[in-house]
Automatic annotation (TrEMBL):
Organism: Pseudogemmobacter humi
Name under which the protein is recorded: Bifunctional biotin--[acetyl-CoA-carboxylase] synthetase/biotin operon repressor
InterPro entries per UniProt: CBASS_pafABC_assoc_protein (IPR051534), DeoR_HTH (IPR001034), HTH_11 (IPR013196), WH-like_DNA-bd_sf (IPR036388), WH_DNA-bd_sf (IPR036390)
One of the record's GO molecular function terms: DNA-binding transcription factor activity
Keywords: Transcription, Transcription regulation
Limits of the HTH deoR-type domain: 3-58
SUPFAM superfamilies hit by this protein: Winged helix' DNA-binding domain
UniProt-listed Pfam families: HTH_11 (PF08279)
Amino acid sequence: MKRDDRLYDIVQILRDGRLHTAQELADRLGVSTRTVWRDMAMMAATGLPVTGGRGLGYILRSPLMLPPTVLTPDEIDALATGLRHVEANDPARARAAKSLLYKIATLLPQAGIEAQDPREPQA
């Protein structure tokens, strides 16, 4: 797992407002506690509102808002696959799925999602 992905996952875990031990985080992320300690120290040094330490656990001091478009490539792929499935198999929701897929492709061009504007006629 890349460090950036791991740091993102740590923030997502800590957003629940509970205290999490380094061992718990390490188990969930599949890394060593030492890696978690280094990551937490780096996160705190960059200004993220993380409180805690070795033997105590870690918690976010204040809510942290991340943009909703911060998705991993695997998450984008899963989302696009699910939307295409809905579009193909659920006539009641097909238009909504197509529209959402187009919005995601527009917001995240780097994801490489191919989607047709739902307002355009079918080819």
